[in-house]
Amino acid sequence: MDWLTLPDAAEQLRIPVTKVRQMVNDRTLLARREGGVLRIPAQFIQDGVVVKGLPGLFTVLADAGFSDDEALDWLFREDPSLPGTPMQALAENRGREVKRRAQALAF
User: Fold this and answer.
1) Of 52, 105, 63, 98, which Cα lies nearest the Cα of 79?
2) How many Å separate Cα 10 from the centre of its chain?
3) What's the Cα-to-Cα distance from 89 to each of 14, 42, 84, rounded to whole Å?
């Protein structure tokens, strides 16, 4: 998986890095700290915008009891029923399928 630093994400989104940091604080984007540096999965940004449905999916996963790290792991884990990963399905505009699976995790 490719990762972006917050300044790199800001450049791709064409917004100030402070706005990206706020998006992480608001859980519009999830980040993981590696080597003391916050990083965002590069796949979260497509064509200069956050992938459609991603912020809402973070909320569903949090409601299902997932930590940010668990949510990141789930998004990039192969799911033969999709096929591919939930993140690939989101990027391919198959968000409903992904959201249904995430909602089922809560039960």
Assistant:
1) 98
2) 15
3) 25, 15, 7
Cβ-proximal residues to 57 (8 Å cutoff; 6+ apart), any chain: 75, 86, 90, 95, 98, 99, 102
The 10s digit of each residue's pLDDT in 33-86 is: 989 999 999 999 999 999 999 999 999 999 999 999 999 999 999 998 888 999
Domain count, the chain: 1
**CB of 45 closer than 8 Å to CB of 9:** yes
* Secondary structure of residue 20 in the 3-state scheme: helix
Starting at the edge strand found earlier in the chain, the sheet holding 3-5 runs 3-5, 37-41, 32-34
How much is the average pLDDT of 84-101?
Answer: 93
Q: Which domain holds residue 47?
A: 3-105
Place of tokens 């940091």: 21
Strand 45-46 and strand 49-50: the pairing is antiparallel
